[in-house]
UniProtKB/TrEMBL annotation:
GO molecular function, a single term: glycolate dehydrogenase activity
Entry keyword annotation includes Cytoplasm: no
Species this chain originates from: Halomonas icarae
InterPro entries the record matches: FAD-bd_PCMH (IPR016166), FAD-bd_PCMH-like_sf (IPR036318), FAD-bd_PCMH_sub2 (IPR016169), FAD-linked_Oxase-like_C (IPR016164), Oxid_FAD_bind_N (IPR006094)
SUPFAM superfamilies xrefs: FAD-binding/transporter-associated domain-like, FAD-linked oxidases, C-terminal domain
Keywords: FAD, Flavoprotein, Oxidoreductase
Positions of the FAD-binding PCMH-type domain: 4-183
NCBIfam families listed in its UniProt record: PRK11282.1
Taxonomic classification: Bacteria, Pseudomonadati, Pseudomonadota, Gammaproteobacteria, Oceanospirillales
Highest taxon of the lineage: Bacteria
Protein's name according to its UniProt entry: Glycolate oxidase subunit GlcE
């Protein structure tokens, strides 16, 4: 087992800044002054703009505990994400949720706060699925631990997971314990020319079989697949499915939104639709070209450029059982109303939770919704 006193790499910086962070939060609570929590600031576009004094977690960094045998790592929130991934890779392991970085300065805290996952998400799970526990500084400036380091430890487990995707609106995440997994023994990526409808049918068919697929995306008339697992299984599946070898770097470029699709000049806003599995192709107003859509996560995450109104896009997504987010993208500016409005009952629970944990609204006020 590796601890903070037995650093896994000489390049890793370990520094506990929790007391300084707690003191700043205590002062903000006493003054009723809002705080804008930032780590690497690479995902500032995701959500609404926050007005408040910047509170940086970058000095609070380092791996505090790592047990490669038990597949568990505990790391401070300000730790660069690439630094953590490098340590894991040196031990033949990875973050299975494949979180996007959107910049070299991305931190572990930003990964947890946004809860964004990469192409492997439908097969491996989301960021939330691998969180075992967290340490959080509350509005009173006290550091509390929720959850633990084993899946069966459920004391405070739900509250720990609740911090994933809350965007720092419920408290300051200072440390997280996560489950990690071994790197795949073999990997191959395929490019198969086919229509969108054929791709959706094939994915539904293959989804009923134990194939080693860990990523599937359709773009510009072709289905892109990633196969991972044992060498014999990967090779046998690649021979069966056919297609051409996919260029190296495609999945990272998709995860980091560096494909030409995301950088294409367009006057139309970009929408991210999260939909149930096996949702058929949707007729979206304002989308007239194949080049305006990209299907990721085997079709459950869809990107589309459309000039239709937010109400139209969100109504279509809602009728299909999902939701739609207006996406600014890496380097973009925060938007006024990026997320689907909450249903009245759900909004009530959100308000109650925010009131209980942050009654003065000092933690990233308005980051998710204007009212809280």
């Amino acid at each position: 087992m590796v601890t903070m006193n037995d650093t896994p790499s000489r390049d890793i910086i370990n520094h506990d800044a929790s007391e300084a962070l707690a003191e700043r939060i205590r002062r903000a609570e006493a003054e009723g002054s809002p705080l804008r929590i930032i780590g690497g600031d690479t995902k500032a576009f995701y959500g609404r703009e926050v007005e408040g004094e910047a509170l940086s977690t970058r000095e609070h960094r380092g791996i505090t505990e790592y047990d490669p045998v038990e597949l568990i790592v505990s790391v401070r929130a300000g730790t660069p994400l690439r630094e953590l991934e490098s340590v894991l890779a040196a031990n033949g392991q990875m973050l299975p949720c494949e979180p996007p970085h959107f910049g070299e300065e991305a931190t572990v805290g930003g990964m947890i706060a946004t809860g964004l996952s990469g192409p492997r998400r439908p097969w491996a799970g989301s960021v939330r699925d691998f969180v075992l526990g967290t340490r959080i500084i509350t509005r009173q400036g006290s550091e509390q631990r929720f959850g633990g380091q084993v899946m069966k430890n459920v004391a405070g487990y739900d509250l720990s997971r609740l911090m994933v995707g809350a965007q720092g609106t419920l408290g300051l995440i200072t440390e997280v314990s996560m489950k990690v997994l071994p790197l795949p023994a073999a990997t191959r990526s395929l490019h198969l020319e086919m229509s969108l409808q054929e791709a959706l049918e094939k994915l539904a068919e293959w989804g009923r079989e134990p194939l080693p697929i860990t990523a599937a995306a359709w773009l510009e008339g072709a289905l892109h697949l990633r196969l991972e697992g044992g060498p014999s299984s990967v090779e046998a599946t690649a021979r069966r499915l056919g297609g051409d070898e996919l260029l190296d770097g495609f999945w990272e470029a998709l995860r980091e939104q560096q494909l030409a699709f995301f950088g294409a000049e367009s006057a139309h806003p970009l929408w991210r639709l999260s939909l149930p599995h096996h949702t058929p192709a949707l007729e979206l107003p304002g989308v007239s070209r194949e080049s305006d859509v990209l299907y990721d996560w085997a079709g459950t995450q869809r990107w589309a450029r459309s000039d239709a109104s937010p109400e139209e896009i969100r109504a279509i997504a809602s009728q299909a059982g999902g939701h739609a987010t207006r996406w600014a993208g890496p380097g973009g500016a925060p938007q006024e109303a990026p997320f689907t409005p909450l249903a009245p009952v759900v909004e009530k629970y959100h308000r109650n939770l925010k009131t209980q944990l942050d009654p003065q609204g000092i933690f990233n006020p308005g980051r998710l919704y204007a009212a809280f």
